[in-house]
Amino acid sequence: MVCARTDSALKIVIVDENPVRAAILADGLLEAGYTNVGRIEETTKLLARIYTLDPDVILIDLENPSRDVLAQMFQVSRAVKRPVAMFVDQSDTAAIEAAVDAGVSAYIVDGLKKERIKNILDLCISRFNAFTRLQDELETTRNALSERKVIDRAKGILMKAKSISEEEAYALLRKTAMNENKKIAEVAQSVITAAELLK
Amino acid sequence: MNGNRLRIGYIPLTDAAALIIAADKGFAGKEGLDVELVREVSWSNVRDKLNIGLFDAAHLLAPLAIASNLGIGHVKVSLCAPFMLGLNGNAITVSRSLYDALTLAAEGDLSDPKVSAKALARVVAERRRRGAEPLAFGMTFPFSTHNYQLRFWMAAGGIDPDEDVRLVVLPPPYMVESLGNRQVDGFCVGAPWNSVAVDLGIGCILHFGSDIFARAPEKVLAMHASQPPDRADMLQQLLRAVDGAAHFIADPANIEEVATLVAAPHRLDVPPEFIRGTLEGQLRLARGGMPRTAPNYILIGRDGAARPNPIHAAWLYAQMVRWGQAPLSPDLLASAKACFRPDLYDAALTEGAGASLAPADGIGAFVGPKFDAENIAGYLAAFRCQPQESEF
Fold first, then answer.
1. Which of B45, B52, B183 sits opposite A67 (nearest CB)?
2. Which of A81, A172, B31, B268 is most deeply packed, by most CB within 10 A?
3. Average pLDDT over chain B, rounded to whole?
4. Option in B45, B75, B166 nearest A79 (CB)
5. Is the ipTM, as predicted for this complex, more than 0.85?
6. Is position B368 within any domain?
């Protein structure tokens, strides 16, 4: 497709201090055929860095205080080489909502047709959302792991103190949790705390 | 707005104090409101989240609210400002080496902005002669009083801020570091960043913002201009809560409590002394030096500071025109003035604004023509007719 070939030439720069998220986004863009993707992780002298790369499209995460630096690029002044615009305009409320929700913002060089970067923004939003999901899952896994460790320790304490089997220790924790309407990990944590107090 | 719940965005700066005190000292609760304050990292984020309705209201740069109304620099969204969260509160800080150069170049007392502006012009000219890089100054946003304060001051010395120096946007938390590693030679920012630079021995405070303009419209409580009628009560409740908080802040007897609440880790997360010093207008200008006190360093909830003044909106618009950010037109002027809503303030607060010590033109600039909201073209022309200092 002619149009796709033209778009793959678009120079895109990702400004994100989170290297993992930036890599996920860069990969996505490459997969989609955008071969000209640069990354900026260090935001000191951000404008100078951007001018060196001279991109058509700038993608920046919303946790980045340097987002306000880009506001300067809307100005027509000597300090600004190529004025940029926010990707969204008045008619794009849905796009801006989706982008803000995902935590990303896109800027394009003034004059660039917005349809040409619609794909980029969509991809950006889905990758950012995927990253957030990944982080949430990681957090859940981490919590589950530490819960299991707590339960294992509590079982050990009960086995030793009451001379019971592992199954019996676990059954005891579970029964207490049900009776007290608590999570097993919470009961296990109290067992550990109590054991430490009684040391 | 769901029920009586309000989400309000803010940037961790001293002039968010009225919102923080309203939420954390029970003023909002007393009005039956459940206010959730959301700390943000950039003005762009605050503006966007207010625009799309993620925030019901926000702590916003006064000129940014106007720019949004005019549709310059970004999407046009009609915002209104029914309450001024703060007037003044900025300072201009320069690196120690620039301070020394200014001291050498000054003909007179450097604490006089007329003298310092001319001294800066001499330093700028001298650097140009020896082919040095132009001086760079940090400010917080293109549509900010910080930008206009720096430009007004420099222009008074005959400097063209777009040609003779570089003005760069820097997020406030990066100002001090950038001054330390010589990315910039000075900056204009709000508290506590000037004091941080002074305490570290990196910079000296050259001027308080109130030296440049006696009364500059700094931050507003911004919200969408068109609010559904069923929110009218809630708006009045919010204004009463924030006004109550602003008065609480203005009472010197409460300063310790205010400083502690505002400085808390989940709010500004800075030492309470910084907040206290800012509210008292007492700042050390150089490390180890005596503090200087200016009663109008920052105005929150006193001297009629809380009531929006459409003349201030017109003046901010005039600054945008002066520096090429907006064209001059009666429609844009009307739209800028309509952003500031003393009528909403008056409807909610029967007590009135209190005695105002405002200068005759509402602004009180240290030099130049008096501001005339009825004749902005004439006001701006008067700057061009001023003899530019070119003796260097």
1. B45
2. B268
3. 93
4. B166
5. yes
6. no
CATH number, domain containing residue B224 = 3.40.190.10
Residue B375 belongs to some domain of the structure: no
pLDDT in tens, B118-151: 999 999 999 999 999 999 999 999 999 999 999 9
B74 touches chain A (CB under 8 A): yes
**Per-residue confidence (pLDDT) for residue B307, from 0 to 100:** 95
Q: Is B261 found in the same domain as B204?
A: no
Q: What is the value of pTM for the model shown?
A: 0.86
Cβ–Cβ contact A81 with B under 8 A: no
**In this complex, is the C-beta atom of B45 within 8 Å of any C-beta atom belonging to chain A?**
yes
Q: Which residue among B48, B51, B162 sits closest to A78, beta carbon to beta carbon? A: B162
CB distance from B51 to chain A under 8 Å? Answer: yes
CATH of A142-197, one of 3.10.450.50, 2.60.40.2150, 1.10.10.10, 2.60.40.10: 1.10.10.10
The three state secondary structure string of chain B is: CECCEEEEEECCCHHHHHHHHHHHCCHHHHCCCEEEEEECCCHHHHHHHHHCCCCCEEEEEHHHHHHHHHCCCCCCCCEEEEEEEEEECEEEEEEHHHHHHHHHHCCCCCCCHHHHHHHHHHHHHHHHHCCCCCCEEEECCCCCHHHHHHHHHHHHCCCCCCCCCEEEECCHHHHHHHHHCCCCCEEEEECCHHHHHHHCCCEEEEEEHHHHECCCEEEEEEEECCCCHHHHHHHHHHHHHHHHHHHHHHCHHHHHHHHHHHHCCCCCCCCHHHHHHHHHCEEECCCCCCEEECCCCEECCCCCCCCCCHHHHHHHHHHHHHCCCCCCCHHHHHHHHHHECHHHHHHHCCCCCCCCCCCCCCCCECCCCCCCCCCHHHHHHHHHHCCCCCCC
Could you tell me if B253 and B335 lie in one domain?
yes
Residues of A in contact with B143 (CB under 8 A): 71
Contacts of A96 in chain B (CB under 8 A): 48, 51-52, 75
* CATH class of the domain defined by A2-136: alpha beta
Judge whether B390 lies within some domain: no
